[in-house]
Amino acid sequence: MALFKTQDRRTAIASPTLLLPVSLLVAPTTFCRGDDNTPPANDPTPQANDTTPPTKRISWKRVDDFAKGQVERGEVQALSLGVWFEGQPTIRHYGQLAANDDRQPDDNTLYEIGSVTKVLTATLLADAIVRGEVDPDATLADLLPKPNAPLRPGVGKVRLLDLATHCSGLPRLPTNMTSLFDPNPYAPIDREKLLAGLSHEFLTLPENPTHSYSNFGAGVLGQLLADQAGKTYAELLRDRLLQPLEMNDTFVQVPSADMQRFAPPHGPNGKPGTRWEMNAMTPAGGVRSTLADMMKLAKAMLDPPDSPIGKAIQKTWRPLRKAGGRERVAMGWFVKPSFDIHWHNGTTGGYHSLVIIDRENGYASVVLSNRASFETSKIAKEIRFEQ
Question: SS3 letters for 68-100?
């Protein structure tokens, strides 16, 4: 039986040039109605199958055969897969780094993880709450540095928790973003431009605001958390999350000595892509990591350590609001409540990633690829459990 099935997810924008910046977005637009259980519509990748949960072992032959077929058909370039199941890790790597680079990916190959970065950013929010540094109900008006451009009605009332659950009402991308068609679209957005973008927005927030996936909001959240801690986002991430979990191969900026391990990027069509420099939007999707490090993260999410970061992880876990279909949204995670499965994926200009956490069954999976295509995460549906 299959625990997960995947579904092609298309954006409403057909232009390949627009697809890349928008491809950091993974969630449908629905309603945030507090802590309810209203069922619903479209399901993003992956989708839980309403059948009996797994019991015995994973059919790795099926997984290997599927992945090798994808490589042979040219659907993926390099693909790294890690699974935790009943306390045991399993690692698989497929393909080669590029058509002109026959090196195979390994545990230490670096990939962009895209919007999975939002899970890290939300965990930093939870950590700051646990430390008593911020209140989840603190608003933009409370936290934005002074002097700052005047905020239009509604914007100042947006809370940190709204930013972490995509219920802020802010658009997907900053309105003042002028680089949408550039190969590296987020690079020009520095901290000043990001925060200035808030003055361009006009929000009328109802009591139950609409759930609308926002890279803009995630970028603002990360920058405000860094401000409160008196650090840069990269420093905050390193000190509060990466070092405690011993994720020493995870970076915002990859050191020059490690660039040879950075898998070359490929676009959705398999042609050479672009490594994205996210600048002030890094909290929304700018982290680079390896399968070895992401497996450490997955293990901590499955079984949080008895430490400050473990307490922060646990604080992110509770579903807070309705997202889409039967899905809910927690701090940084999408949640399938029928199985209590937490997940997030991400796509940048040359990479795709997927993380799934199922505590009830002691299962977690990580998919990393250097091709900006949802085809690469279809391997998740091939992870099957047999008696």
Answer: HHHHHCCCCCEEEEEEEECCEEEEEEEECCECC
Between CA 375 and CA 252 the distance in angstroms is 26
- What digits encode the pLDDT tens for the residues 97-109? 999 999 999 999 9
Residue with tokens 């977005």: 25
Q: What angle do CA 233, 334, 167 make, to 5 degrees?
A: 70
Contact criterion met (CB below 8 Å) for 56 and 387: yes
CA–CA distance, 225 with 106 (Å, rounded to integer)? 34
Report the C-alpha gap between 165 and 149 in whole angstroms.
25
With vertex at residue 327, the alpha carbon angle to CA 322 and CA 328, rounded to the nearest 5 degrees, is: 40
In the block, residue with structure tokens 């999350």: 241
Name every residue whose Cβ is closer than 8 Å to that of residue 269 and which is 6 or more positions away in sequence: 16
Residue 118 CA to residue 331 CA, distance in Å, equals 9
Taking the CA atoms of residue 228, residue 231, residue 235 and residue 236 in that order, the dihedral angle to the nearest 10 degrees is -10
Q: Which helix (H) or strand (E) covers residue 63, if one does? A: helix 60-72
CA-to-CA dists, residue 352 to 50, 170, 201, 260, 375, angstroms: 26, 24, 30, 19, 9
Three-state DSSP state, 30: strand
Tokens matching residue 116 = 């999975």
238-286 pLDDT, tens digit per residue, is: 999 999 999 999 999 999 999 999 999 999 999 999 999 999 999 999 9
**DSSP, residue by residue, 194-256:** HHHGGGG------SSPEE---HHHHHHHHHHHHHHHTS-HHHHHIIIIITTTT-TT-BSS--G
SS3 state at 5: strand
pTM to 2 decimals? Answer: 0.87
Return the structure tokens found at 157. 């009332």
